[in-house]
Amino acid sequence: MLSTPLCLLFFFLCLTTTFSSSLHASSFSTTQLCSHEEAFALLQFKTSFFINNTTPYPGRCNTYPTKPYSKTESWKEGIGCCSWDGVSCDNVTGHVIALDLSCSLLFGTFPSNSTLFLLKNLQSLDLSFNDFRLSKIPPEISQFTRLKHLDISSSQFSGQVPTEIAHLRKLVSLNLSNDLDSNSPELILETTTLRNLVQNLSEVRELVLRGVNMTSANPRFFMNLSSSLTTLGLSESGLRGNFPNSIFRFPNLKIFYLAGEGNLTIDLPSSNWSSPLQDLILDVMDCGRRLPESIGDLKSLQHLLVGCNLGGSIPTSLANLTQLRFLSLRDNHFSGPIPALIGKLSQLTSLSLSSNNLSGQIPSSLANLTELCFLLLSNNQFSGPIPFHASRFSKLIFLDLSYNLLNGTLPPWIFTLPLLRFLQLNHNQFQGQINQFQQKSLIWLDLSNNKLQGSIPNSMANLVNLMYLDLSSNHFSDLVESDMFSAPQNLETISLSYNNLSVKMNVHANFTLPKLTNVFLSSCNLSEFPNFLRHSDGLQSLVLSKNSIPGNIPEWICEKDDLEILDLSHNNLSGKIPNCLPKSLSVLNLQANYFDGNIPFVFPKGCGLRNLNLHGNQMNGPLPKSLVNCGKLEVLDIGNNSIEDTFPHWLESLPDLQVLVLRSNKFHGSMQSTKESLSFPKLRVLDLSNNDFLGPLPVQYIENFKAMMDLYRDEGSPEYMNVSSYQYSLVVTMKGFEYELQGILTIFTSIHLSYNKFEGEIPDVIGKLSSLKGLNLSHNNLSGPISPSLGNLVNLEWLDLSSNGLAGKIPDELVSLTQLEVLNLSNNHLVGRIPQGNQFSTFGNDSYEGNLGLCGIPLSKSCNGIGTPPSSFQEKVELWRFGWRVVVLGYGCGVVFGLLMGYHVFRTGKPKWFVSLFDGQPSQRRRKMRKARRLVQRRS
Asked: What compartments host this protein (predicted)?
C-alpha cells in the first residue's frame, strides 16, 4: 500500500541530488588536448566494463537530471579526452582533474590494477550509481593524493572499506553511501579505519556514510571531525549507543542525518543550538521526551524530520522557522491538537504528522500553506469535518488523512485539485455521496472503510491515469458496470468489496483492463466469473469471495503464471479442483464451496504456497504427501471435509507451519511420533476435533510447541498473518461458539482435540504452554486427575474438559487463571469442594453438572450436608441460630420419648433385641439364657 514513505523517499532523493551536486567538482569545457597517457588510461578503463541498459538504476538516475546513459560512448581515439562526456581538464596544464561517471550504466568488476589510478592529477571522482558487481574498494585508491571529492555511492561495492582511504588527506567531500534495499551488498567500515579516517580528514566538509555498516564503531569518534564540517550523513549505519549532542554546536554544520535501526540515541539540547542547521533528520530510538521549544532558534532550518519516540505537544516555536520547507514529525507520540501557528510556515511544501496521538480538529489555518505539495496526517485521532471550505491547495500532489475519526461529507474541492495524484481518506467516518471526479492526474484513490453511500459516479471514467482504486467497506449501492472503468487503462488494483453493489463487468465482449494485477470483488453479488480477466496478463491477486459464482474454476486461471493469491471462498463452485493451478500461488483459499474428489495437487519442489484453505468442501481421499515440498507453508486448513487418512506425521518437516486444522474429517489412529526431532516449533493453532484419533495425547508434539510457550516472543503490537495486503481467515471454535476470523493475529493460540478417542491422563507438559488462549479436550476418554500444571496457563480464556472420565478434585491452582471466561468440566467423575475466588465466582452450575461428587458454590449441594451454603455473614448467623433451635427442640422431645419407651421396655422386657442392647455384653447375655433354659428342662 502506497503511503507516506513515498513522500519521504521523494524527499530523500531530492536531498541526495543536493548532496551529490555539492560533491562533484564543477565541469568546464576546454579546447586543450589531454596527454596521450591519460587518454590511453581512460580508454583502457572503458574496456574494463560492459554497458548494461537492462538493470533499473535507483535514486537520482531516474529522477534528476536525466535518465542514465553511457557517458563512455563518446570516448574515442583521435578526439581530445577533455571533450569527452564526464571528463574535465585543467585549463592550463590539460591534465584530467575531474571524472564524473555517475549513472553511466557501467557493469562489471572493478579491477584493483585499473588504469584509472594513472590519473595522478585527479581532484574529483564520481562513480556513483553504477554496478561494480560486489567489487572491493581497491586499496590503490590511496594513489589519488590530490583527490578532494570522492563519490562511489550506490555502485555495488562490498566488503571492508580499505584503511588506505584514510590516506586521502585532502578530501573535502566523501560519499560512500550504500543502497538501503535488502539485496544491496554490505560495505563495512571498521573501528580502526573510521578512527583514522576521522583523524586524517582535517579538511573534510561533507561526509556521507549512509548504509555503511559501522556496528563496531563508537559514535564519539565523529566528534574529532574538523570544525569546518558542513554535512554529516550517518543514516542506516548500525551505530549504537548515545551520539554526543555536542554535534549541534559544530559552528558550520548545515546538514545532519542520523537515522537507523538499533539502540542509537541522542539527546536534543534544551538550548544553545549554535549550528547553522538547514537540514536536520533524526530517526533513532530515542532523542528525549519532548521536542524542546528551543528548536525554534534554528532560523535557517529548511528541512526537519524527527522521529524518535518524542511525546508531549508539538512546540509552537516551530512557527519561528519561517524558512522551513519540509516538516515531518511522524512516528512519534505527540498528543493534543496541531498548533494553529503552523499555518504561518508559508514556505512549507511538505507536512507530515502521521502516526502520532494527535487529536481535535484539523486547524483551518493549514489552508494558508498554499505551497503545500504533500499533506500527511494519517494514523491519528483527528475528528470533525475537513475544515477547509474552499481549496487553496492548488499545488497539492499527495493528501493522506487516513486512519482518523474524521466525519461529515467530503468537500467538493477535493475532487477538483488539478495536480492531485494520491488521495487517501480511508478508515474514517465520512458519509454522503462522492462528487464528480474532474482531475485526470489522480493515480491513487483510497476511500475504503468509511460510510459513503449512493452510486459510484460514472465520472470515474475521467480518471484516465488511475492505477489504484479502493472503495471497499462502504455503503455504496446500485449496479456497477464496466463502462466506468473503460477509460483508466493503467488500472492495476481495484477493490469494491463489502458494499451493497451488484457488479457486472462482462457486459462488453471487448472490455479489457490489460494491466490489472490485483482484483478484490468480495461480496459484490457476482453471479458469474469475470472472464474479462483472462486478458490481464500480469494478474497477481484475485479475490472473489462471498459471491454466488457457480460452476467450475475456468481453465484460463491455469495460464496466470504470476498469480500469487487466489481466493474463491464462499461461492457455489463445484466439481474437481484443477491440478493445473499456477505454481506461483502463495495463497489458495477455496473454502465453503462444493468441490469434491481427491486433493489433486502434486506440489513441486520449491513450492511457494503459504496458505492452503480447503475448509468446508466435500474433498475425500488422503492428504497428498507432496505437500512437504511447500517449505513456506504457514496455514493448512482442510477441516469439514471427508479426508480419510492417518495423522500426517510428515508435516513435522514444515518449519513455518503455524496453523493446522484437520477437524471434522475421517482421520484415525494414534498420533504418537516415532521421531525425536523438534517438530512444529511455530505451531500456534491446532484443531483435530471430530475425528477418530486414539491413544494418549501427543506429548512428543506438545513439548515442542515453542510458539505457545513464550508469551513475549513477539515485540511490538500484534500483527495479522498475511501475504502482501491479503489477510488470512480461519474458522475456529472459541468459547463454545464457531467463528470465522477475518484475520489471524500472531498472538492467537489454541488447541482443540475434542470428539476423538484420546485416552490416558492429561500430561503435565501442557502447563508449559503459557501463551495458550484456548484448550478443548472434551468428549474423549481421558482419565485420572486434572493436572495442576494447567494453573500455569495464565492467558487461558476458555477451558473445556467435559465428557471424559476425569476423577479427583478440581486443582486449586486453576483459581490463578484470571483470564478464564469459559469453563466446562461437566460429565466427569470429579469430587470434592469446588475452588473459590477470581474467575471461579463467575461460573454457573452448567460448568460442573454431571459430577455427582462435587459440592460447594455454585451447586446446591454443600460440602457439610446442611444445604446450600449461605452467601452472607448474616445468613450464616441465622442458619446457626436455626440449627441450634432444631437441635434443642429435638433433644427435649427425644428425652421425654426415651423415658417413656424405657419404662415400657424394661417393665415388659419387650422387645428383647432392644433390651439386649442395654443389658450387658451380648455374648454374656446369650450364655446366661442358654443355662437358664437347660436348668428348666432338667427340673421338668
From this structure: Cell membrane
* Torsion angle of the four alpha carbons 295, 297, 300, 305, in this order, in degrees rounded to the nearest 10: 0
The model's pLDDT over 849-894, given as tens digits with 9 standing for 90+, comes to: 999 999 999 998 888 754 444 443 333 433 334 343 433 344 444 4
Contacts of 422 (CB under 8 A, 6+ apart): 2, 6, 397, 398, 399, 400, 442, 443, 444
Pairing of strands 726-727, 722-723: antiparallel
pLDDT above 70 coverage of the chain, percent: 84
Domain of residue 9, residue span: 1-217
pLDDT in tens, 235-294: 888 888 899 988 998 999 999 999 876 688 999 988 878 789 999 999 998 988 899 999
Distance separating alpha carbons of residues 630 and 399, to the nearest angstrom: 42
Is 183 domain-assigned? Answer: yes
133-136 contacts at long range (C-beta below 8 A, 24 or more positions apart): 133/107, 133/108, 133/109, 134/158, 134/159, 134/185, 135/109, 135/110, 136/110, 136/112, 136/160, 136/162
Q: How many CB atoms lie within 10 A of CB 489?
A: 14
Residue with cell 488422503: 622
Domain assignment present for residue 643? The answer is yes
DSSP string, 449-499: SSEEEEPPPGGGGG-TT--EEE--SSEEEEEEEGGGGSS-TT--EEE--SS
Question: Which amino acid does the sequence have at 521?
Answer: L
Q: Are 125 and 27 within one domain?
A: yes
Cβ-contact 302, 324 below 8 angstroms:
yes
Domain boundary among 155, 189, 217: 217
Last residue of a domain, one of 778, 811, 844: 811
State yes or no: pLDDT of 468 exceeds 90: yes
Strands (E), 455-606: 468-470, 475-481, 493-495, 500-504, 518-520, 541-543, 550-551, 565-567, 572-575, 587-589, 594-598
**Nearest of 487, 455, 490 to residue 474 by alpha carbon:** 455
Mark whether 12 and 151 lie in a shared domain: yes
Residue 440 and residue 444: Cα distance in Å, rounded?
11
Q: Is the same domain home to 613 and 702?
A: yes
Q: Which residue do the cell numbers 516415532 mark?
A: 674
Which CATH number is 149's domain given?
Answer: 3.80.10.10
- Name the DSSP letter for residue 858: T
Please report how many Cα atoms fall inside a 13 Å half-sphere around the Cα of residue 122, on the Cβ side.
25
Cis peptide, bond prior to residue 65, ω within 30 of zero: yes
C-alpha cell at 402: 487516513
For residue 7, the SS3 value is helix
How far is the C-alpha of 403 from the C-alpha of 405, rounded, in Å?
7
pTM: 0.80
3-state secondary structure of 614: coil
User: How many domains does the chain contain in total?
Assistant: 3
Degrees, nearest 5: CA angle 760-762-768? 150
Q: Are 318 and 295 in contact (CB under 8 A)?
A: yes
Q: Check residue 577 and give its pLDDT.
A: 92
Rounded distance between C-alpha atoms, residue 155 and residue 134, angstroms: 9
Alpha-carbon span 319 to 755, nearest angstrom: 68
**3-class DSSP state for residue 718?**
coil
- Quick one: which of 549, 544, 583 has its CA closest to 566? 544
* 180 within domain boundaries: yes
Mean pLDDT of 691-709: 93
Of 376, 375, 408, 378, the closest CA to residue 392 belongs to 375
Residue 624 lies inside a defined structural domain of this protein: yes
Same domain for 106 and 192:
yes
Q: What is the pLDDT of residue 917?
A: 32
Q: Can you tell me the distance from the alpha carbon of 372 to that of 783, in angstroms, rounded to the nearest whole number?
A: 72
**Do residues 796 and 893 share a domain?**
no
